[in-house]
């Protein structure tokens, strides 16, 4: 199984440093989620891991090789990336989009092979998009469109998949739908999945490994239950919260302090517990 690490990684644009001398190792065959406030460098880091951004210093190592010295085709055969809010040409069908995932395996004068077709069909099946393969991508709902793009990355047939905010612009139902799909792909195929997510509760539910970014470096990392705490949320997001146990999944659940309902706010401030008595029903 492919390995992915970063050593002494410094990233930025011009004189602005976004990530500074960062070291990380992505666990093989697990789901890793980057968390942190807007602008902390999560997406920049993800792009660098995919060789879409050249480091100012340090290196990204894929399967023991410096990714900067690898051929583009070789990188694409080992690692796929789905950027945030990707777009496709107008009128492109789902099938035509997913076929593009086979580009790293195409050579001049090489005909479309049985292996290519099987990879595309499997990707469509795994994402439940087979029945929609002849529809145009721009006619799909947000959740269906995201599944089509994930199918493209699956057709690329890589052990490592990087996704930049795959639930952006999706309603809650479609967020869960997409994350369940990625979880199933990890469970079934053992693919290494690395995501940027903003929702701490969903990150805690779906991640095996969480990496929190703050002040250009890794602030904390580990299993959600060992990482997500009120102190971490306060330090990384500058927000007060309570951390409870998700009653269904047993994972950390962040309950942010805020203005909210006045009655509830007052009760929290007084450290009281709101209860519904039988008489009140």
From TrEMBL:
GO BP field: iron ion transport
Pfam families: ABC_tran (PF00005)
Keyword field contains Calcium: no
Gene Ontology molecular function terms on file: ATP binding; ATP hydrolysis activity
A GO cellular component annotation in the UniProt record: plasma membrane
Highest taxon listed in the record's lineage: Bacteria
CDD domains, per the entry: ABC_Iron-Siderophores_B12_Hemin (cd03214)
Domain ABC transporter per the UniProt entry, residue ranges: 4-240
Membrane topology: Peripheral membrane protein
InterPro entries: AAA+_ATPase, ABC_transporter-like_ATP-bd, ABC_transporter-like_CS, P-loop_NTPase, Siderophore_ABC-ATPase
Keywords, in A-Z order: ATP-binding, Cell membrane, Ion transport, Iron, Iron transport, Membrane, Nucleotide-binding, Transport
Location(s) in or outside the cell: Cell membrane
Major subcellular location class: membrane
PANTHER family in the cross-refs: IRON(3+)-HYDROXAMATE IMPORT ATP-BINDING PROTEIN FHUC (PTHR42771:SF2)
Name this protein carries in UniProt: Putative siderophore transport system ATP-binding protein YusV
Organism encoding this protein: Oceanobacillus sojae
Gene: yusV
């Amino acid at each position: 199984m492919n390995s992915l690490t970063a050593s002494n990684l410094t990233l930025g644009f011009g004189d602005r440093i976004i990530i500074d001398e960062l070291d990380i190792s992505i666990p093989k065959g697990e789901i890793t989620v980057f968390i942190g406030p807007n602008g902390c460098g999560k997406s920049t880091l993800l792009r660098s891991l995919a060789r879409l951004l050249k480091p100012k210093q340090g290196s990204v190592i894929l399967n023991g090789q410096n990714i900067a010295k690898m051929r583009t085709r070789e990188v694409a055969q080992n690692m796929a990336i789905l950027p945030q809010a990707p777009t496709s040409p107008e009128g492109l069908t789902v099938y035509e989009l997913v076929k593009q995932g086979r580009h790293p395996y195409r050579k001049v004068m090489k005909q479309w092979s049985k292996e290519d077709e099987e990879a595309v069909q499997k990707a469509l099946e795994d994402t439940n998009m087979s029945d929609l393969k002849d529809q145009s991508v721009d006619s799909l709902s947000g959740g269906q469109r995201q599944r089509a793009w994930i199918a493209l990355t699956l057709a690329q047939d890589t052990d490592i998949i990087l996704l930049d905010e795959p639930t952006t612009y999706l309603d809650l139902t479609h967020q869960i739908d997409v994350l369940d799909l990625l979880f199933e792909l990890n469970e079934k195929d053992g693919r290494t999945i690395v995501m940027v997510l903003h929702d701490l509760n969903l990150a805690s539910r779906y991640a095996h490994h969480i990496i929190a970014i703050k002040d250009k470096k890794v602030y904390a990392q580990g299993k959600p239950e060992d990482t997500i705490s009120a102190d971490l949320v306060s330090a990384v997001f500058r927000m007060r919260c309570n951390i409870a146990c998700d009653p269904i999944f047993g994972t950390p659940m962040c309950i942010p302090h805020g203005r909210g309902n006045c009655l509830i706010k007052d009760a929290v401030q007084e450290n009281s517990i709101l209860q519904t008595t039988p008489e009140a029903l």
